[in-house]
Amino acid sequence: MRATTLLNRVLDLAGVRVIDVDPGSDAADPFLVRVELKARKRLDCPLCKFSTMAGYDTRWAESRWRHLDVAGRMTVLSMLRRRLRCPAHGVVVQGVPFARPGSRFTTCFEDIIAWLVTRADKTSKTTVSTFARIAWRTVGAICERVVAEQLDATRFEGLVNIGVDEISWRKHHRHLTLVSDHATKEDRVGRPGEERRDTGWVLYRDRPGEHGVDWGCQHGPLRDKLVAAILAGRKTTTTSLLAEFAVDDEPLPRISRYQQVIDSSGRPAAIFETVAVGQLPLGRVPLTQAMDEGEGYSSVAQ
Length: 302
Hints:
Blueprint: H1 3-11, E1 16-22, E2 31-37, E3 43-44, E4 51-52, E5 61-70, E6 73-81, E7 83-86, E8 90-93, H2 107-119, H3 124-132, H4 136-150, E9 162-168, E10 175-181, E11 186-193, H5 199-205, H6 221-231, H7 242-247, E12 258-262, E13 268-273, H8 287-291
Parallel strand pairs: 2-6
Antiparallel strand pairs: 1-2, 3-4, 5-6, 7-8, 9-10, 10-11, 12-13
Helix pairs in contact: 2-3, 2-4, 3-4
């Protein structure tokens, strides 16, 4: 039996077939599996149901995704993809049936990681990141993608008569706030908090839609300073290096996305909405951008 035939049966990837295998020159090298779509006539937008036979250009680009290990070896899928122009989302790279949009991991890999997080101990992200050999921030990004896709968007339909209660959760007066439906006697929301007044935040975070979970730097005086600048209206923008998103495998900011501002005590302080996103070389960043950071900058060089 040929190696490609064997891997086609073992991996059982929907919509693609294995065309080549590169085991690497060393046992520490990743197991590279090259695949191609079974039906290559139409290009699908990864963000909607639009498809077309016309490519945006004739250039093919290689993309790679981390897959579940095979025989203890790190396995990576590789495929050549083209770009297309979607009427709703502009120029995008064609979607694949085995991975979520914008992810560098296969759907199978991400589902396993999200499941492990729910089964691990209180240091779940660190435990899972060590086990899977990925960064702990990547574990969080994977969980966000899995939840965004699989969370039932209709769970609040018909919710009228609710009950709110809380139970002690670990130490330091931490509580678990529960929101239940009296009609069905089922819990609809369960989130950690400090007091019952956190319920409004719990309901907001669990509304159908795409919302961030946290924002900001490490807990400490700097975070509190930035939170105070946001609440005072001095800080209205923030900047990051484009390379950081690729390293951490995090999606780029999107317009109309909501995120919470958390202070050093772990309590929500505000919610902000992203109204504009831009990419600029460092030498073209305007002075207004630096001043709107709210940290007292008087020049871009600072």
